[in-house]
Design a protein that fits this description.
heterodimer; A: about 300 residues; alpha+beta; Alpha-Beta Plaits; 2 domains; four-stranded antiparallel sheet; 12 helices; 4 strands; B: about 290 residues; alpha/beta; Rossmann fold; 8 helices; FtsX_actino (chain A); cell cycle (chain A); cell membrane (chain A); ABC3_permease_C (chain A); FtsX (chain A)
């Protein structure tokens, strides 16, 4: 196989119908960009799950009465609740946070919004137990057991809030994948069409090649490679798209939550991690489409 | 019994330089026999022959055995019980009116079509039954020339000829060597860098012949090669085909051109409605018809 021959055939093939090639590349790029975006969301979810898995707590908020009068949980019912919590199976640790500590934490969290701090009074914040669990799924047991107990105002599972957030992210991911799929279909049809057009414009060459005894590889490889090269250019473009989207959009919109550590940052490394998959998907899909097209529609 | 096969040994490199020699008497022979020969075989010239006759000098290159070809679209067979043998080095005219089956005959040899019945052999290829992936090898041992030349308009003369070698993976140094040789053989030295549209019809056909011959095929199939040419130019092309035939290449030419067939006095196989109605060793174009 003479590489230079095949290569020059590919170049002329791509040049010969530039408009189709560009359409093919752009569609592929958008499709793969969306796929890449979806994969990045998947990575974000993974990161967040590891980030929060050991931090998610069940908060048992105490009534106003307890919050006001029992600063170090030495009286009943606070002390009793603490003992009970500690003895519940699946509980790793129980920390008491009194009203002043809660207020201090509040001030710290909202340090960037002084007007909010001005509005808040320590009296509005309840004392609470922060219950760390060895097994996150055990949170239901705590909620059931302690809701409505004397001295308990409410039991709050931070995990549930987080799950809602993950649901949103999963939805975003699914929607991205769905649109990517539709785009991929469009890309597929374009690839197939481009190959057919390309085979038609080169029918004389291909006819002669067949006649002089060129093997299937020689006659078909240029067409296949044409599709693969366009696919790869598309995937490179998709990666560029992702980088631009990260720098120009994501980094700016999510600046605050990223800095406060609520949302893990999606770095260039994540894009680097995702892009080989895009290249692979592009090459595999375009080669496959090309092969099927040549088999079904083009008599070579 | 041995039927010499040259398909593996019709290399491009002409070891002595100059014209290729007829391949008779070469020592390297393929011993595989796929072109069986029965005792009492009648040679094209009509004599009864012994089996030795085939072994040394005149191996069969083409054999059609009771070939029938029916196309799906028409009930009438394009070829009906056709048996033809062609010996290495022969020059055969295939004549007959349009629709008599000449094209089908040629397409069967190239395995563009598969016979409905019967068997087709070219050299040591069992054409109808061979695996698809071996078809390129078969075609590499057959050269083809057409009425409409089929040159690549965006390539020069030399590039057109080189193309036939490039696409079968011949190394570049071989191509650089043999392309000028074959252009000289067909009388186009000095026109290597012309574009096809700058050439006359006769010259274009020479390019096509050069391209068909550059890989030194066993068989040259010519489908109405003079159909688009004036009588004088046709004569020149025929001289060229004769010259190629003298190198040992079997030439099978489908034609309507009476004067050429009559003047050459070569073997004539005439087809009519898919049947062989005449097979003369030194024939003319249908006298009594």
């Amino acid at each position: 196989m003479r590489a230079s021959f095949v290569f020059s055939e590919v170049i002329t093939g791509l040049r010969r119908n530039v408009t189709m090639t560009i359409a093919m590349i752009l569609t592929t790029a958008i499709s793969l960009g969306l796929l890449g975006g979806g994969l990045l969301v998947v990575r974000l979810i993974d990161k967040m799950q590891t980030l929060y898995s050991d931090k998610v707590e069940v908060s048992v908020y105490l009534t106003n009465d307890v919050s006001a009068n029992d600063k170090n949980c030495s009286q009943q019912p606070c002390a009793g609740l603490r003992d009970e919590l500690t003895q519940t199976s699946g509980v790793e640790s129980v920390t008491f946070e009194n009203r002043d500590q809660a207020y201090a934490r509040f001030k710290q969290i909202f340090s960037s919004q002084p007007e909010l701090i001005k509005l808040a009074r320590p009296e509005a914040l309840p004392a609470s137990f922060h219950v760390k669990l060895t097994d996150q799924s055990r949170s239901d047991v705590i909620i059931k057991a302690f809701t409505g107990k004397p001295g308990v105002r409410s039991v709050d599972d931070q995990g549930q809030f987080l799950n809602r957030f993950f649901d949103v992210l999963n939805g975003v991911r699914n929607a991205t994948f769905a649109v990517a799929l539709v785009q991929a279909l469009a890309a597929l049809l374009l690839i197939s069409n481009t190959i057919q057009v390309s085979a038609y414009t080169r029918r004389t060459e291909v006819g002669i090649m067949r006649l002089v005894g060129a093997t299937r590889w020689y006659t078909q490889l240029p067409f296949l490679l044409e599709a693969v090269v366009a696919g790869l250019i598309g995937s490179v473009l998709a990666v560029v798209l992702l980088v631009v989207a990260k720098i120009a959009f994501l980094d700016k919109v999510l600046q605050a939550p990223i800095q406060s550590g609520v949302i893990p940052e999606l770095g260039m490394l994540d894009i680097v991690y995702v892009s080989p998959w895009l290249f692979l998907v592009a090459a595999a899909i375009s080669a496959f489409t090309g092969y099927v097209t040549l088999r079904l529609y083009v008599r070579l | 019994m041995v039927v010499g096969s040259l398909s593996e040994d019709h290399g491009l490199v002409n070891r002595d330089g100059g014209m290729p020699r007829p391949a008779q008497g070469r020592t390297k022979r393929n011993t595989r026999t796929t072109c069986p020969r029965r005792p009492g075989y009648i040679s094209p010239s009509g004599e009864q022959t012994s089996s030795e006759w085939t072994q040394v000098d005149s191996p069969l290159v083409i054999r059609l055995e009771h070939v029938t070809k029916v196309y799906k679209t028409t009930p009438r067979p394009a070829l009906q019980d056709v048996s033809v043998d062609v010996v290495k080095g022969e020059f055969v005219f295939l004549i007959g009116p349009s629709g008599s089956g000449k094209s089908t005959f040629l397409r069967l040899l190239l395995r563009e079509e598969v016979p409905s019945k019967g068997r087709v052999y070219v050299s040591n290829f069992d054409v109808a039954r061979m695996a698809r992936r071996r078809v390129p090898r078969l075609r590499q041992s057959i050269g083809c020339v057409f009425q409409d030349f089929r040159l690549l308009v965006n390539k020069t003369v030399a590039e057109n000829v080189a193309f036939a070698l490039e696409v079968i993976g011949k190394p570049r140094h071989t191509i650089r060597k043999v392309v000028p040789e074959v252009l000289q053989l067909v009388g186009l030295e000095g026109k290597a860098n012309r574009m096809p549209h700058e050439l006359s019809g006769g010259e274009q056909q020479r390019v096509a012949i050069a391209r068909a011959f550059v890989n030194r095929p066993l068989v040259l199939l010519a489908d109405e090669p003079t159909g688009n040419l004036d009588p004088d130019t046709s004569q020149d092309i025929m001289l060229l085909l004769e010259r190629i035939n003298r190198t040992g290449t079997t030439v099978l030419m489908a034609t309507h051109d009476h004067s050429i067939v009559d003047s050459m006095r070569r073997r004539v196989v005439e087809l009519d409605q898919g049947r062989v109605i005449r097979d003369d060793a030194r024939g003319v174009y249908g006298v009594g018809r």
